[in-house]
User: Fold these one by one.
Assistant:
Number 1:
Amino acid sequence: MSADDFAVVAEGLSKIYRIGIKEQAHDTLARAAIDFIRSPLRNYRKYRSLYQFDDVADGKSTGTSETPADIIWALRDASFSIKHGEVVGFIGRNGAGKSTLLKILTRITPPTRGRARILGRVASLLEVGTGFHQELTGRENIFLNGTILGMSKREVDRKFDEIVDFSGVARFIDTPVKRYSSGMAVRLAFAVAAHLEPEILIVDEVLAVGDAAFQKKCISKMQDVRKQGRTVLFVSHNMPAVNMLCTRAIHLEGGRIVNDGPTHDVVSNYLSSDTGVPAAREWANPDSAPGGEVARLRSVRVVSRDGRSLAAASVRDDIGIEMAYDVIRPGSMLLPHYHIYNEEGVIVFGTLDHDPAWNRRARPEGHYVSTVWIPGNLLSAGTLFVTCSLITRNPDVSQFSENQVIAISITDIMGEETARGDWAEEMPGIVRPRLEWTTRFTENGR
Amino acid sequence: MKPTTNDLPVSVIEPPKGFEAIDFAELRRYRDLFYFLVVRDVKVLYAQTILGFSWAILNPAIQIILFTVIFGKVANVPTDGIPYFLFSTVAIIPWTYMSESMIQSSQSLVSGQGMLGKIYFPRMIFPLTPVLAKLVDFAISLLLLAGVLIFYKVTPTWNILLLPVFVFYMMLIPAGIGMWLSSLAVRFRDIKFAMSFIIRMLIYTAPVLYSASSIPPEYRLLYSLNPIVGVMEGYRACLLGGPIHWEFIVPGMVTSVLLMLSGAMYFRRMERVIVDVI
């Protein structure tokens, strides 16, 4: 692969900020006076130190001992390559370095170390409306904002009518923007941004101002851009949106890239590290495993139809929840069951084992694996938590009940075999079954 | 539509490394933006005023009248035999341009910080925008100048052909000082407070209100290192005729070219850290 196959190649990008320079406290009047006289020089050094990092050791070193206390690595040694046409989501907690990375790639701020090579024009939806001036008319603002976003005057000329149409403020195009409602101003600003034709589009949802409707517009704009085969870098906290739009995700943590790969894997990994609940549990020692003298739980996991362990599955996939347990004392009838909770703690459903082969049968001693199959296109996207229990019948006694012992992330996708089809907007509901629809058509007047 | 990769612009992002040359190709790419920012400054300036662009005339006119009364009538400042009103009009008009564009230019980065943090374009456009935008005011105030020249029945001499040279020279000064002070003001907000003092110092150390011939000959070279001196002498010679005192003009021209070059260099050095420090 040649260098030209990549839209973005970043090598060891790092960004250091100096924070919290302590003001000196003085305890005597004399010292305060001396300090006052010396302060211009000290202030000069202080402000200089904000952007000079000669005292910070090489970014490659990992030890923190040589790092002065007043600096933070907003980004540390970020290396990645993004191919043309890739849609990459950047995820991570606040302060993980996502926005810093995008600011470096848009050249707003330079890296302290490292290097990036970008092939193509970059535009970002984080500055929608930047440079809009209240006193200028809509027309003047379109030209100003368009050129700020990197279009030439000729390009704006060419797209002017389209922009005005899209914004829906044609009647007021020669009115100063200060007379607009805030909704109109945002529509006009977005219309300008939507008509950019960059090779690389950067969307920072975290910074994007505007309401839910505006964010939806951003998302549908990204889908258009993706369909045109352009490259999109998307920063978001909205995991369903990342799952839906991105083919690849990069997870940042404390300024470093900790995971980079297919969206589903990275997102589910991020989510499970986020919830602190693993995707599978195993009890190596049968004596300390949940349960009692009748049965002991040995493992719980989520599996695919072909038997692989899963941390994430798409809304379309069948998944199995599998519990393995040992029956120590034979002769009981057993009832394994699960409760499935969503992120809000709502029980999505409970399910009981009524496999006729074992349902009313006293079980001999041995190792059992009970799996329930949840069909694809039933669950909604999000993280689900599984409570796993076993009951002995007549009388009904709980042998073990492990509350929310594992988590699985159900990732959102679009497409033919999903409930959402090609609908890109929000799909509400605890479940998302793909149901049969019929249409009866009668021609007018018959 | 998959973009063909060979005609795409390549940009390399690297840490700032000391002094860098001015990227004229980049400035050229952003010329449309530069143009619209200038237009914005011009259009916004007199928005929602009753008098509008008349302020471009009123503003210097009031100063001229004030100075004529104080310096011409009360203090009786010598003007080489030129009526004081005419004498000061010729100087106040370029002076108004220079002082206003200098003030705006020096504050341009601080007042534009909202934009700085959100989007990239060559930062140099910020301090240079007022230098061009204020030319519109200057052009309008030339009407006042023309009126005064006609009133005093001044016949133009061939000297007037040199006027474009002095207009350009006049623009170099706020451009140079603006680049220096705007990048300094990012780090040191002191500049904002020092500005009124700097402006006052410049008007008194240049022959705006008095004639340069009143400076003793042994100090003339030192005196004319102040670039404002050359502008004033140049305008007077171009518009009122008479000999052109190059000895007052050339040193200031050298200073202003140096100011401009060093300003641009310093600006380039600071430009990339502006966002982190502002």
Number 2:
Amino acid sequence: MISLNVNGKIYKANVPEDASLLWVLRDHLKLTGTKYSCGIGECGACTVHVDGKAERSCGMTAGEVKGKKITTIEGLPENNPVKRAWIKEQVVQCGYCQPGIIMQVAALLSETPTPSADQIIGKMDDVICRCGTYPRIKKGIKTAVQMARKEGK
Amino acid sequence: MKTSITRRTFLKGSLAATGLTIAVSVSPFGTRLLNASQSKDALKRFKPNVWYEVSPNNVVTVFIGASEMGQGTHTALATVIADELGTEWKQVRVKQGPAAKEFHNPLLGEQLTVASAAVRGFYELCRKAAAAGRAMLVKAAAASWGVPESECEAIKGVVEHKKSSRKSTYGELCLAAAKLEVPKEAPLKKESEFRYIGKPTARMDIPEKVKGAAVYGLDISVPGMHYAVLARPPAYGAKPVSKDEKAAMNVKGVIKVVEMPMGIAVCAKSLDAAWKGRKALDVKWDKGVLPQLDNDFIEKTMMAELDKPGSKAMENGDAKKALEGAAKKVKSTYFVPYVAHALMEPINCTASVGKDRCDVWAPTQGQTGAQALASEISGFPPDKVNIHTTYMGCGLGRRAAPDFVVEAVIASKVTGKPVKVVWTREEDIQYDLFRAATCQRIEGGLDGQGQLIGWSHKAVAGSIFKLINPKAIQNGVDIMSLWGLVDFPGSPDGNRILYEIPNLYLEFLISELPVPVTAWRSVQNGPNAFVTECFIDEMAHAAGKDPLEFRLPLLKESKGAQRVLKVAAEKAGWGKPLPKGQGRGIAQHHCFGTDVAAVAEVSVNEKDGHVKVNRVVVAVDCGLAVNPLNVEGQIQGGVINALSTALKEEVRFANGGVKSANFEDYGILRMSEVPEIEVHLVKGNEKMGGIGEPGVPPTAPAVANAFFNATGVRIRRIPLTSNAVLEALKKT
């Protein structure tokens, strides 16, 4: 039995220490917003925050995150500028990669509130969207930055 | 493709939930909505047909039978219904409809979301279905107030009688309207009265997707659900020679090992147990039907197939004679490799074969096929087979094939449990049904004035119809494989080479390679347009003409193509000089009823062979764009998919099977590789065209033509990887 702090809530999961965090979140905690796509950290669809940092949950074990604060897409507040910007700029198409991408952007902006184009590419080249929403992802990031700045967040 | 909707009764169903049976048929005179029976239940809401219902709480729920894989169909069709019904957009909710004859696409003859056909296929039908409801709501209001219907107006979800200042909401009127007979024909709104159609509308699926609450196939959870994973052959046609079933069954949680046509399934209580069981099963396979198959073998084989006799697919005039008499001739051979769908959501499906029904939760583009196969396997008649279509993590045509449905239904039937079949990313790529590779040779001839007078074209490709409808292959010609080169018989879309070439001959040979293929966004329009649009560019160069100026006089009958070429060229600054090392290329293609032209600008680093696409300007004529915001997104997506094939994608094969396995060795375009993409909508075509796919075909040839413009070197093969570029530059 492992105890996990996810989205501010303590969950108990009957899984071994080496169980994949991604599948524990999805199959045991039923937090299916975090997606499986590549399983090797190449695409970013499974991105969650571990103590505020963007991490690929497919490459982490449940044991590794004991005692740490995990935030999934479900736990990122609805008023987070990234979530709002994604709706405003109509970024999403199929949407499967977007929870991971939103988590990636949210972590980037919390560390670097006004990232340069290079800083954005540096982080965003780690994620993949097959629908080709990249132009709107760029727009969404810009809008999120502006929203956050305006609101002094 | 050709399906006449005339006189065909295509909506006829029993709506068990309401007890109200409605039949809708399309006659030459339009939609007839027949109100067959009513029950007490029907009086709880107003549901004049399968498309929508109005409840007393003033909510309008729209049901869409087409699949939503990111292309925006659910929102687009809902706006059509909302507009014609006269509701406020904020009243509208959208739900995925079930598998039902009522939702067969009139253009396709079944419930199948392909061919960029959903919005254009259902547009008229949705309008008629909504107009009927609006007429009934008006009638109900007029009757309750004792005024003539002609004095009442329905707008913004309210019926109003201005003379007496009375108004009622649709919610207030719906129960009275439900008692009325559905009119056989109701007047449609004028285009000028549209409030939503043709204007940008925010998509309804986006908020739940941003929340992480949208349910995709892989997110389905059913009580008592088990999991199945398959051990699959590593080489095409490989058969198992040994397996350790006992070891697999010894893994805690494994309940059954099942042989299927696609491989050997391990069924277990958890996904982890299924994976462990598969490992323990340790299946050994023979070498398969073609162990020497690898990329070199594929290319050499297809090149050799080019020299074998094929079947005549099209002939105008006498190309042979014209070429013999030509003042100048060009002969070139092109190759486009296999590419994978690489959908973000790996293939999966959940099925439950119960005592008296079968349920399938599938991210499927093809409900009719899924239902038919599930019915055959489960033994239940189609009306006992419920297809629950989930959101899907991209489709691109891959999810129109029903192989994953078959796996899940077999696994459930054999185990007696609800079973979710899960493919890993590696399986998703290695057992994909690819976009068909193609090898094509064209010989073109110019007369003394540089006029294109002859074109002889030979194409070799895998057959797309082989998997889905082998009977459609006639005299060795697969028109799906030739999509974009020759017309479908009776097709309204125009799928042929549009250039007016007086002497044209086209021959086709189905490649015998065992690599399975299916539709991939735009089907073979992508590879075929790459070949023809690059070759036209070669002919322009041979004629000493500007590529745009060479094309236009050959497209006199194709006004749409002319329009988009001119707009794309103008917006891109066609003809303006570019710095050294950069180039500009143009291409156009017509498919799915839509004309698209693209101008690409590239930089070529001749030292390291790196090609960077700096800008793509696209002009699109799809007629009426129901949601222009969504059209822009779809075209951008199509362009990006195509750039990915132009610059990176090629499936690697080895030892008779697929070697590529994941995004590390099957790279797709990432953000830094995406150029500035401008999309310009040109409204010229009278008929509505599709928008999901037409962004793909002109993009790769525009890039290759830009590469030529930059370097003077022609590359007749994609992807334009650094190695391919260095090799091509070295040769010259």
